[in-house]
Amino acid sequence: MHRTTAPGRVNLIGDHTDYTGGLVLPMAIDLATSIEWEESDRVRLTSSVDSDPVDFDPRASFDSSMTPRWGRYVAAVASLMESPRGLVGRVSTTLPVGAGLASSAALEIAVALVMGFEGDAIELARMCQRAEHLATGVPTGIMDQMCIASARRGTATLIDCSTLAVRHVSVPEEAAVLVQFIAHRTLEGSEYSTRVAECARAESEIGPLRVASLDDAARISDPIAGSRARHVISENHRVGSFAAALEAGDLARAGALMTESHRSLAGDFAVSTPTMDAAVARMLAVPGVFGARMTGGGFGGCIVALIASNAEGPGWRVHPSAGPDHA
After folding, report:
1. I want to staple 18 with a disulfide (CB 3.0 to 4.6 A). Which of 143, 188, 241, 313 is the partner?
2. Catalytic site includes residue 144
3. Which of 144, 160, 216, 268 is catalytic?
4. 69: which DSSP letter?
5. Domain 2-168 has CATH 3.30.230.10
């Protein structure tokens, strides 16, 4: 029996910037999805979080109505591969589903490796991003897949989503990362696609947000699109400043940038919720917390906090993980 594992990720800063070619700084974490498998002529998988099994021909066309729904991610990956390997096995995960910690991307990458994917990290990430689009119908960015595919132990991953250039940023030993689950969420049926369209509307007036300025955003005729652009432009600046603060060991500055990011996501981008805002406020009151924010696509999920390594706070203490393990 073989075992293939792919980690989840938490985004430290840089949300809703990836699909406009912006900067993100996620971190692969020590919560992961694993597949124990043997080769077969079909795909037959059971799951630790869903009692309904997946059973299909890996050479068949993708069926967007497949049940159970988690099987759509598996089938979408198979449909994008030239000669996908069949397998029989079991999927297990320590990642909470619907928490915004990239459980779907971890599954996609693990499945791709099991099915025999050959290529580099960028090719793997791009294919699994397309699989996510097929499985959900949501035009998500490439951050999750790229972070997982290119992760390095002990570091977060600074990704320029316009070029897919990667720089690994060490997390200081004096800092720890806390993740607290607040509310289940799904991007399907949320306003995620609306935000993508609003950013596209902004870009139709001022050009790529990756290189636009806040003065450019102020010229956008639609006030909603202008607010969305203001978040993206300012968030890109915050990501670069956050990476520099981590590398300098300036945890107070890094934390302040995370908190600014949350305010921008809640205000200009309108993807937080009152429950998430209250959770961030409570976290910021914990002794030793440098900063906190919602993380991921929004509309629920988790908050993330940067905390002194010798302090205690609510939630899971997660650690920077290496990338996929395919044996």
Report:
1. 143
2. yes
3. 144
4. T
5. yes
